[in-house]
Amino acid sequence: MSGAGRPFAARVAASLTGEGGVAEGARLVVAASGGVDSTVLLRTLVGAGWSVIAIHVDHSLRDGEREAQFVRDLGESLGIETETVRVEVAPGNVQARAREARYAALADAARRHGAAAVVTGHTATDQAETVLLNLVRGSGLRGLAGMAVRRDLGGVALVRPLLWATRAEVEAEAAARGWGWIEDPTNATGRYRRNRLRRDVLPLLEAEGGSRTAARIAAAAAAARAALDRPALLDLVGTADGRGGVVDLDRVRVLDRPARLAVWADALRRWAPGAAASAALLDRIDALLDAPVGQRVGAAGAVVWRERGALAFTTPTAPPPPVVVEASGRWSAAVGAGWVEGRPLGAVPPSFPSSPNAEVVDADRVPGRLVVRPWRDGDRVRPLGRGGSALVSDLLADRRVRPSRRRDVLVVEGGGEVLWVVGHRLARAVAVTDATRRAARWTVSTGF
Description:
Keywords: ATP-binding, Cytoplasm, Ligase, Nucleotide-binding, tRNA processing
Binding site for ATP: 33-38
EC number: 6.3.4.19
Family: Belongs to the tRNA(Ile)-lysidine synthase family.
Distance between the termini: 45 Å
Number of helices: 14
């Protein structure tokens, strides 16, 4: 690795300002667990004159108060601000959910404190463990690339300026300077797969390959990432949209299977980063090529839809709650990414809107209270210009609304009836007739 002869602090600074892309002297949020890696990183940055705030995230999974107190005491001795943030870890994969909660808390702290980046103490040894875990999961070339020095964290930069150093090198720096730290007792247990790799597998590999084994694995990861960061196949076959991205099937079908799997892995990374690109998930996505329109594959953090001529990659979201409005005057409702509004017009206008995002209705036929909400399975509408009623789902399919976008469609309901499939079809019940004396205008705008 280049720069091996430089002092430890100089290499940290070079990583931060080089591949990390952080301006010299910028304010930083340091993720401080009390362990050796984050402690050495924090002390090194303070000693080099960086403006830092130490954030300790307590997941309530171990002795968080002991670690938090260590970080507070360390911050006081260094003359810097510290903060402890307690988070709730959602059920499921404990380590994955804890990581999501931790990163969300760190990004929020960076925004609150006006920091340019969140920095963590991940080392080359952590990188080697990550690559091995990804190999076990069968996550392909993207998994071999491991962790990036810099990545986006919800609009905040996450930078890992120690990925060049092994854990042994970090411990040697701490010993040379007389710095203490707290050892996490769970690291020595076999409770988690990463712990078992750290305790049992890496020592075996190092017994065969020597003490630089982890560093060589990390270097291989950096080479894989450099190859992946060249113009990707995904840029040739896919495009981003407001809620993720779509891959053109005519373009991707000409690729062989390994290339297609690389496209799916890249699409997940770019458009649904909460999903782990396991071999099983990539196989299920590949099978969508021959699936009927409307089929989908779901995973933690992603939903992939088979659409007409495309696969759409989205991040699942909970349906927004309904909004109740009084329709006697002007009203508005923000539901999800949609803004629906009603405005009295008085007399019927001489011409009606040509856009599907606006309708003129008979104000006297509109119930006094309306509900604006996402449509639900089983919803029916009596559409203007057609007899009888139709399922909203069928109406959206007839109008060729992309399956991945159908759940974004709202309805305006009143008197127990769907009065407007927003942006698509007005119901007969509120349509203007020859007898209409007072009209109103309903409009919708969206964030997509």
